[in-house]
Amino acid sequence: GDVIHRMLTATQYIAPLMANFNPSYSRNSTVQYLDNGTVFVVQWDKVYLQGKEDMGSFTFQAALHSSGRIVFGYKEIPVPVLQISATQHPVKAGLSDAFMVLNTSPDVPESRRRTIYEYHRVELDTSRISSLSAVEFTPLPTCLQHQSCETCVTSELTFNCSWCHVLQRYL
Description:
With 171 residues, the protein is mainly beta. It has helices at residues 6-11, 149-153; strands at 13-18, 21-22, 30-35, 39-49, 58-65, 70-76, 92-104, 112-123, 133-137, 163-164, 169-170. The chain has 2 helices and 11 strands. Belongs to the plexin family.
């Protein structure tokens, strides 16, 4: 979105492992990305935790496929993730999405209040993250994947289609 807000960044993320990493600690530490049109990959290579460099380096990546599939790969996780302190920075792994609405206050019409709505979160069990492991997220089918109202209404999706007046079609 066009608005950056501290709470929005805390609720909108694709995080194979979020912690207080310091990529500038070592010349060997890198954060690199690759986009070949089919998959977008971000890799954290030999990164260290700020102030806990003696724990060792972490290497992991997130791969976002054009099909909607997301894969987190963990090559080096030198300590159990549960041992990483969340004092300086939250420790999270998973997916989250949110949006922000600017509301005017009835008392002061020229003011705007930001309200953030987190509408979906998938948290990984961080105790299961270890070296040489991976997690795969596969998207569920949606009605928008169908080419006609007939195929949508007769599909075996697990939700009820309904008419959208704005788009003039079933969703």
